[in-house]
Design goal:
It catalyses: a very-long-chain acyl-CoA + malonyl-CoA + H(+) = a very-long-chain 3-oxoacyl-CoA + CO2 + CoA. Pfam families: FAE1_CUT1_RppA (PF08392). Keywords: Acyltransferase, Transferase. The chain is an alpha/beta fold. It has a domain at 32-41 and 98-257: Thiolase/Chalcone synthase (Peroxisomal Thiolase, Chain A, domain 1). It is built from nine helices and six strands. The protein has helices at 2-29, 50-58, 65-77, 88-91, 100-122, 145-153, 171-185, 210-218, 254-257; strands at 32-39, 131-136, 160-165, 191-197, 223-229, 240-242. Strands 3-2-4-5-1-6 form a six-stranded mixed sheet, sandwiched between helices. β2, α6 (145-153) and β3 form a beta-alpha-beta unit.
């Protein structure tokens, strides 16, 4: 009887250890590790130093003295230094007639340069990517920017791909949250790429409504990409581990809903 009891105890203990091992292995497989990131460094001839900003403001014939004063004051208090950058259409004086091609070139340069660097630096091949999430603050194109990346790098047909636009400043957080959730539900050993970028070519405001002028003072060209994984074996190579993402959506509030919108002013 004692031998039977001992055998059952050992069997139960082994089963408990097996379940614990599987649970730990599953939790480890749900981790989200940041392996690498790249930030875009625009060309120096697109830098918005003080003299360039003043020149852009002065050539806007829609502005009066009060608007000039407002813009100069807003620029001085914005906290943005002279090492920021603008789309080439703005630098070349075409902000009032920027085209879709200008927007595509702006985003393509950011996406492809950062992706080229991250693949080269990490040694991973584009065909190893399982998840691709692209977020653009305000601009949307057809075909999507995610499709442009897939076509350029010849990514796999079974890749999980998402193209987010119109999410504004929250776009990066939305993209990271999406990848974090996918890595928890998909099989382990996945690689995910997040590409996040601004697109200002066709969003540069040339009117005289002060609240709409602020976007020109606060937003600049830029972007970057992240390489993430849930592969436990790559943990030693990770820069960071994402433990938690907290998102709150206040779109049900009219005040919050209207805090950032893309519309035309009365002059069109």
């Amino acid at each position: 009887m004692e031998i039977l009891f001992l055998s059952l105890s050992i069997t139960f203990l082994c089963y408990a250890l097996f379940c614990l091992y599987n649970l730990i292995h599953q939790i480890r497989g749900q981790s989200c590790y940041l392996l690498a990131y790249e930030c875009f460094k625009p060309p120096e001839d697109t830098k918005l130093d003080r003299d360039t900003c003043v020149r852009i403001i002065r050539r806007n014939k829609n502005l009066g003295l009060q608007e000039y004063k407002f813009l100069l004051k807003a620029m001085a208090k914005s906290g943005i230094g002279e090492h920021t950058y603008a789309p080439r259409s703005v630098i070349e004086g075409r902000e009032e007639c920027a085209t879709i091609e200008d927007s595509l070139k702006e985003v393509d340069e950011i996406m492809f340069e950062t992706l080229d660097r991250i693949f080269k630096r990490t040694g991973f091949s584009p065909v190893e990517i399982d998840i691709l999430v692209v977020n653009i603050t305000v601009f949307s194109s057809v075909s999507s920017f995610a499709a442009r990346i897939i076509n350029r790098y010849k990514l796999r047909e079974d890749i999980k791909v998402f193209n987010l636009s119109g999410t504004g400043c929250s776009g990066s957080i939305v993209a990271i949250d999406l990848v974090h959730r996918l890595l928890k539900t998909m099989h382990k050993n996945c690689l995910a790429v997040v590409v996040s970028t601004e697109c200002l070519s066709q969003s540069w405001y040339c009117g005289k409504v002060t609240s709409m002028m602020l976007s020109n003072c606060l937003f600049r060209s830029g972007g970057g990409c992240l390489l993430l994984t849930n592969n436990p074996s790559l943990k030693p190579n990770a820069i960071l581990r994402l433990k938690h993402v907290e998102r709150t959506h206040l779109g049900a509030s009219d005040e919050a809903y209207g805090c950032a919108m893309m519309v035309e002013d009365e002059q069109g």
